[in-house]
Amino acid sequence: MQDDELLRYSRHILLDDIGIEGQTRIVQGHALVIGAGGLGSPVSMYLACAGVGHITLVDHDTVDLTNLQRQIVHQTCSVGSPKVDSAARTLHQLNPLVQVSAINARATSVFLEEHVPLADVVLDCCDNFATRHAVNAACVRHGKPLVSGAAIGFDGQISVYDARSKHFPCYACVFPPDESLEETRCATMGVFAPLVGMIGTTQAAEALKVLAGIGQTLAGRLLMLNARSMEWTEVRMSHNPNCPVCAGNSEF
């Protein structure tokens, strides 16, 4: 690392668990962030500030006035602009040392097949089950750790689905793709503004732990937050040997 990096990241380097070696791994890391909205905002901002060397940000949407209540990576002047362009400007201002690839597109299966293999960690910050399952399937195929978060109303959840180990479940083990789940979105249900920050910053923390190779991640555990009572609940999860996604993977 250069002198300006050593100074900028000095408070990480002072941590025995991270040090020079861990921060170097972060600086050399590549994070793929799916979604530049409520969760993607704190995720991308903390990853950039922490020095993740390359952040690929994908979203097909534009900034709307209703987003600004919670999507803190965007500003009023960005209304009408592509979210990825708005986010990239903010991230560059936060840390010009970080490379940001802003891709104004949907995270389709074709896109994921091209970009997931290039990442060291993938962060699912989207708002629909179809994309979550597509992201999970791509991560399983390519053996990439996935940090997945969700938030609606006053309720949030987060876990790590680590396809690098056969002992941990994938997203489809816990939420089967053929299971009928009611799709709820912020546009119709609303969302408590700080909730996405709490879940998103936790996603960023898990991703940094993955990149630095430190601590114990949430793999095999699902954290659920009730922001009304400010209570966290932890549920242990296990690999499903009959999972339609990961059971056929050669690593399982």
Overall description:
- There is one protein chain.
- This protein is of the alpha/beta class.
- It has one domain (10-236): NAD(P)-binding Rossmann-like Domain (Rossmann fold, 3-Layer(aba) Sandwich), CATH 3.40.50.720.
- 36% of the residues lie in helices and 19% in strands.
- The chain has helices at 3-8, 10-13, 19-27, 40-50, 83-94, 109-115, 129-142, 171-174, 186-189, 193-212, and strands at 30-34, 54-58, 99-103, 121-124, 145-152, 155-162, 221-226, 231-236.
- An eight-stranded mixed β-sheet has the order 3-2-1-4-5-6-7-8, with helices on both faces.
- Helix 4 (40-50) runs parallel beside helix 10.
- The longest helix is centred in the last third of the chain and has 20 residues, at 193-212.
- The N and C termini lie far apart (37 Å).
- The model has no long low-confidence stretch (mean pLDDT 94).
Low-confidence parts, pLDDT < 50 over ≥5 residues?
none
Report the CATH topology name.
Rossmann fold
Q: Compute the number of helices.
A: 10
CATH architecture: 3-Layer(aba) Sandwich
**Amino-to-carboxy terminus distance:** 37 Å
How can the largest sheet be summarized? 8 strands, mixed
Percentage of residues in helical conformation: 25-40%
Number of domains: 1
Instruction: Give the overall pLDDT as a whole number.
Output: 94
Broad CATH class? Alpha Beta
Strands ordered across the widest β-sheet: 3-2-1-4-5-6-7-8
Shape descriptor reads globular
CATH superfamily: NAD(P)-binding Rossmann-like Domain
- Radius of gyration computed on alpha carbons: 17 Å
